[in-house]
Amino acid sequence: MIWGRQGTGGLRRSGRSCLMPLFALLLGSVLVAPVSAQMFSDRPPPVPPASVPDVPAGPAMNLAPSSGPASGPSLPPPLTAPPAVAAVPPVVAPQGAVIPNQGVLALTARFGKDLPAVTGGLVWRVFSDRPDETGNMKMVREDRSATPNIVLPPGNYVIDVALGLVSAVRPVTLKAETDRESFILPAGGLRIEGRVGTSKIPQNQISFAIYKGSQFEVGERASLVPNVAAGDVVLVPEGTYYIISNYGDANSVVRSDIRVQASKLTDVIITHRAAVITLKLVSDRGGEALANTAWSVITPGGDVIKESIGAFPKVILSEGEYRAIAKNEGKVYERSFNVVNGVDGEVEVVAR
């Protein structure tokens, strides 16, 4: 999810007003942070080579249920589950039940103060408030339901809840009664795909990296999510992000700013201006490709864009002018060619 420096492209955001269940909104390439409220790195990203025009966004899809406790969104299942931690199986109290000498943690989460409740995709963990002999805080319960009622002996605990990359933590003192705790998780969904013209780029040919903030902010940062596959849903805290999109492994790279809203799923379409080019070294035009050929694709200024070895390698290039240099049996051949946006083609170099 790797990247070249040359390329131009655009961004389009689309939204839909229909609802989607959130209980499956744990996504690919997302690690659930066990403690902190927002797991980010503050290292700034690389400075982009050129600005990408910002396009007005349409309405985002609502991730929250429309009404009633049973209605709720449904998004793709997670590609990476939260890390498994051994824990005592939870004891769940029936609604309104009173258990002698035990307390009940009644837990809920919302997307925001005035926003709907989160109906799925949550990971609740309850820890002892004192570290054990190894210095770690012992997890005493884990639950993945939306509104768990967890039975525990009275005492001091730390509650951690996570939804994708959004998490919150809170200490509680539990007595022999029901303690109702509600958490705010301002999470929004982000789903990305790439296109050339009106054609969707296959998932195995494109990847995305997500960074916190705008691409125009000064400084270097590490990626928040380094490798997102097309079509996967990423849950992140609401805010501004930018995406680096790589079509192939040469120079078709696009950078795009995006805004994520809490409880909304934002669909992003990133447009590349590129094409797939097949290289062939032949003895005569239209002939068979010669094996064991070393290839270099360079710009008119002499910058090397891609190197490979093979009879007919494929390379994805941004639109523009290039030269193909073929080396075979100690001899060097070359040819200039142009790449037109969306027009895949074959470039023959004649060994003469």
Describe the 3D structure:
This protein is mostly beta strands and 352 residues long. It has strands at residues 9-14, 61-62, 103-110, 123-131, 137-143, 149-152, 155-163, 166-174, 178-184, 187-196, 199-200, 206-212, 225-229, 233-237, 239-247, 252-260, 264-272, 274-282, 294-298, 304-309, 314-318, 320-328, 331-339, 345-350. Strands 1, 2, 10, 11, 14 and 17 form a 6-stranded mixed sheet that branches. Mean pLDDT is 80; it is low at 1-9, 11-58 and 66-88.
Helix content: under 10%
Overall geometric form: elongated
The largest pleated sheet is described as:
6 strands, mixed
Number-wise, the strands total: 24
Quick structural gist:
The protein has about 350 residues and is mostly beta strands. It is built from no helices and 24 strands.
Brief descriptors of the model:
disordered N terminus, six-stranded mixed beta sheet, 352 residues, 47% strand, four-stranded antiparallel beta sheet, single chain, mainly beta
Furnish the topology, listing elements before pairings.
Blueprint: E1 9-14, E2 61-62, E3 103-110, E4 123-131, E5 137-143, E6 149-152, E7 155-163, E8 166-174, E9 178-184, E10 187-196, E11 199-200, E12 206-212, E13 225-229, E14 233-237, E15 239-247, E16 252-260, E17 264-272, E18 274-282, E19 294-298, E20 304-309, E21 314-318, E22 320-328, E23 331-339, E24 345-350
Parallel strand pairs: 3-9, 10-17, 18-24
Antiparallel strand pairs: 1-17, 2-17, 3-6, 4-5, 4-7, 7-8, 10-11, 10-14, 12-13, 12-15, 15-16, 18-21, 19-20, 19-22, 22-23
